[in-house]
Design goal:
Structural class: alpha+beta
Oligomer: single chain
Order of helices and strands: HHHEHEEEEEEEEEEEEEEEHHHHHHHH
Largest sheet: 14 strands, antiparallel
Helix content: 25-40%
Number of helices: 12
Radius of gyration: 23 Å
Length: about 475
């Protein structure tokens, strides 16, 4: 499955020609997102029943080069038969609470680069016929990974819970990107019932020695999970988290590695040598009552003021520096309280980098740094604000980044920004009135078209218009 730092490292090593331009990305994404769920009658779906899960043969494993992996015997497997799916979108398994986990931020580093991921439950479901006559309605989750601030991967994941409490993985649509926003590969894309069997991603009440395959398509994606520890306590974003699980993952294309799962969070921490991806904050698991603290608003408002300043005179630079120091002071005060530990370092770096760039009087880099500071504050605000508000602000900040990149003459940077906006759009679309949504879609399309035409002036113009639209929403 894609949420492994090994996948990112493998993608970095691939050297192939980009598969599509921004226009094709937009078309493919639009088709995938607009595909209606099939009605049960149209697919000939039967009443849900306990069903054996098709398994790859030893010859298939050998053909994929997996024959020498230390795979478990069938006696240890928990995923050879799927229980009925009477209420599949009601996911109550605490170690994979995808139905309730509206948004999660994980961060870390890969190959010495900053790694940041966002997982968001999308507001619609699909129906998948995973084997003839057996259908299941699935939750749809969006995963986006950023490496050094640029979009690295987007995946759309499909999940459902069986009646015995186990959670199953029914496929993913994957786009890995180059730094210039062009598609690098769609490797790892699959759907149950078309490409192979679906897979158990979390057993009900897992015990030491249990084994399941989180992906089970040799030659495409394969991952066997061995439960090694249960009832563990981990340090979480809001304090100790009990009831955790440690699993050893055996992969198709990487060395075995440990992954941690925690109640209320699901996937909690992955490591591969010095590389780390770990839970930073989740909603509603880490949500707190009350409004956004004044210190975080000082950071956000200050970042917006700095971005909006012409930065053309000594006085404007001086005022920007003063605001940046007030933002840092507010952060120091806020950091003295209850702050998710994994968000401390990125926020501190963003604010100190902003001050350094203002002192260097680098206009373009200062504006870029102000966006980083605003984004860091917005991540922290996930604790206090509805997820839709956080995602709407994220969309606006990527519009600002497109403005900066277009003004700097970065075609690849602007393309990557537009691709990011296309995916973020799906998080907020249903919260917008129809006219506003049409305007938003039109302007994102204009930005994409301008990138294809290599007309960054037009791209910047569309971004400015889109910024005006977002100001009316926020």
């Amino acid at each position: 499955m894609h949420r492994t730092i090994m996948k990112v490292r493998a993608t970095n090593a691939v050297a192939i020609v980009a598969l599509a331009s921004i226009s094709l990305i937009g078309v493919v994404g639009a088709v995938a997102r607009s595909q209606p769920a099939a009605a049960a009658g149209a697919t000939g779906c039967q009443a849900s029943a306990s069903t054996p899960v098709p398994q790859p043969t030893q010859a298939m494993l050998d053909a994929a080069g997996l024959g020498d992996l230390p795979l478990a015997p069938d006696a240890a497997r928990r995923d050879l038969v799927a229980a009925p799916f009477s209420d599949p979108t009601s996911v109550t398994n605490p170690l994979f609470p995808i139905a309730e986990l509206k948004s999660a931020i994980l961060n870390g580093h890969v190959d010495g680069k900053v790694f940041h991921t966002e997982t968001t439950l999308l507001p619609f479901t699909k129906i998948i016929e995973w084997t003839p006559g057996q259908c299941v309605r699935v939750l749809v989750s969006q995963y986006m990974a950023f490496l050094d601030g640029s979009l690295q991967e987007t995946a759309i994941d499909l999940y459902a819970q069986a009646d015995d409490g186990s959670v199953w993985y029914l496929g993913e649509t994957v786009f890995d990107y180059k730094i210039d926003g062009l598609v690098l590969t769609t490797e790892g894309t699959w759907q149950a019932g078309i490409d192979g069997p679906f897979a158990m991603i979390m057993p009900s009440d897992p015990q030491v020695g249990d084994v399941n395959r989180a992906e089970n398509l040799p030659g495409n994606s394969f991952e066997e999970v061995h439960v090694t520890k249960v009832n563990q306590t981990f340090n979480g974003p809001s304090g100790p988290v009990s009831g955790g699980m440690v699993a050893l993952e055996i992969h198709q294309d990487a060395a075995p590695s440990d992954k941690l799962f925690a109640p209320g969070y699901g996937e909690f921490r992955s490591t591969d040598g010095p590389d780390v991806e770990a839970m930073a904050l989740a909603s509603p698991t880490d949500s707190l009552p009350g409004g956004v603290p004044a210190e975080l608003m000082t950071i956000s408002n200050g970042a917006d003021r700095i971005f909006g300043s012409p930065l053309a005179t000594i006085l404007e630079w001086r005022r920007a520096l003063q605001r940046a120091h007030r933002m840092l002071d507010a952060w120091i005060a806020f950091r003295a309280g209850d702050v998710p530990p994994r968000l401390v370092k990125p926020t501190s770096i963003a604010l100190r980098n902003l001050i350094a760039l203002i002192e260097a009087r680098s206009r373009s880099k200062t504006r870029d740094a102000s966006i980083d500071a605003a984004y860091a504050s917005n991540d922290l605000q996930l604790r206090y604000r509805p997820v839709i508000k956080i995602d709407t602000r994220r969309f606006e900040l990527w519009v600002l980044r497109a403005l900066v990149d277009a003004a700097a003459g970065s075609l690849g940077g602007t393309r990557s920004d537009v691709v990011t906006l296309e995916w973020l759009r799906d998080r907020i679309a249903l919260s917008l009135d129809p006219v506003t949504l049409v305007r938003l879609d039109t302007l994102v399309g204009e930005m994409g078209g301008a990138v294809v035409d290599e007309d960054l002036t037009a791209a910047a113009r569309a971004a400015r218009d889109l910024r005006d639209v977002m100001s009316g929403i926020l």
